[in-house]
Design brief:
Keywords: Signal. Residues 1-20 form the signal peptide. It is built from seven helices and seven strands, in the order ββββαααααααβββ. The chain is mainly alpha-helical and 231 residues long.
Length: 231
């Protein structure tokens, strides 16, 4: 799994995503995952990966972005060895973000979505970011919405966009902890089942490895959408 660290600085959030599913019900035949009655098929997931690989190779900026993140220690993919696991985690994360928005009063206004887009550098940067995290460009609006949901939630919980004092830092960390609990509740509340070939669902830890669970150091204030530090 990827453990994430949130920081609110220079008007942007920095976090790394993790997501997956658990439960005892058997997975439906041909499904990579199910979310309630919705099925993400292995064939559709395979198409997502094929499209991503083709588009990623054609976008040098996306490759440079991923390399820069990795060099700085930012892990922006769930499993660098498995594009399918990475894509599946992101797709499930969009469902969780939708639940957070609907259930916890974090539906972003258009102006809040536009703010996040500007903070990330605009549509072109967002396209490369979507490819860098392991999804084809057609998912950039979904990614932007997920990021805006997290940003809106944190703001409404009292996070300070640009912490300048120890009190600001404390307030932001408290907001992040509350947001993390809300994301955990949202993940738990969704009926998500994962095909064992892609791992297991753990509501607190996210998508666990297919074999042995690996622990990684770090605080996990918010397990939500990806917002790498682009600075």
């Amino acid at each position: 799994m990827i453990r994430t660290t949130l920081k609110v600085a220079a008007g942007a959030l920095a976090a790394l995503v993790t997501l997956a599913g658990c439960g005892g019900s058997p997975i439906k035949v041909g499904a990579a995952a199910t979310v309630g009655d919705e099925r993400i098929t292995t064939s559709s997931l395979g198409q997502v990966v094929d499209d991503w690989q083709r588009e990623f190779r054609a976008d040098p900026a996306a490759g440079q972005m991923r390399a820069r993140f990795e060099a700085s220690g930012q892990q922006i993919v769930v499993d660098s060895r498995s594009p399918a696991r990475t894509a599946l985690a992101q797709l499930l994360d969009f469902r969780v973000a939708d639940r957070v928005a609907a259930r916890y009063g974090a539906q972003p206004a258009p102006a809040e979505v536009e703010l996040v887009s500007r903070q990330l550098g605009g549509p072109r940067t967002l396209t490369s970011l979507t490819l860098a995290i392991g999804l084809p460009a057609r998912y950039q609006d979904d990614l932007l919405h997920s990021l805006a949901v997290q940003n809106t939630l944190l703001t409404r919980l009292g996070a300070v966009p640009v912490p300048r004092t120890p009190a600001d830092e404390t307030q932001t960390r408290q907001a992040a902890r509350r947001a993390n609990e809300i994301y955990r509740q949202a993940r738990t509340g969704l009926d998500i089942q994962i095909n064992p070939r892609y791992g297991q669902w753990r509501s607190d830890e996210g998508l666990s490895p297919v074999t042995t669970a690996l622990s990684r150091p770090g605080v996990v204030p918010v397990t939500g959408p990806v917002v790498p530090d682009l600075g």
